[in-house]
Amino acid sequence: MDEKRVTGEINKAAGQVQGAVGDLTGDTKTQVEGRARETQGTAENLAGQAKDAIGQTVDRLQDAIDKGGERLPGAEEVYRQGNEAVRRYTKAAPLGTLLVAAGIGYFVGWLIHARR
């Protein structure tokens, strides 16, 4: 668990207490400061949750890549060869590459708008 989640919850709780004290005493400044601290704590907590989620996603992707490498040991070499072939074609015929990319973009746009 990311430490921002913990500090965020602490700040949120402290802000709630500070806001409640401000409510009881009628001190507007304390109320506003409490609400601001509570909001800051909520934001910190959300940032920590996002960081945790990203870390978990990266771990899952790394696991999937590792498993894919185990199942298809020659896949990386095939990818490199395909990449090199595309690179050679792009250098040899940049206009053709541009036209193919434009055609793919047009087709994808057509698919998106045809569904509506």
Automatic annotation (TrEMBL):
Where is each CsbD-like domain found? Answer: 5-54
Keywords associated with the record: Membrane, Transmembrane, Transmembrane helix
Kindly list the residue ranges recorded as spanning the membrane: 92-112
Taxonomic superkingdom: Bacteria
Protein family per UniProt:
Belongs to the UPF0337 (CsbD) family.
Protein name per UniProt: CsbD family protein
Give the species this sequence originates from: Methylobacterium nodulans (strain LMG 21967 / CNCM I-2342 / ORS 2060)
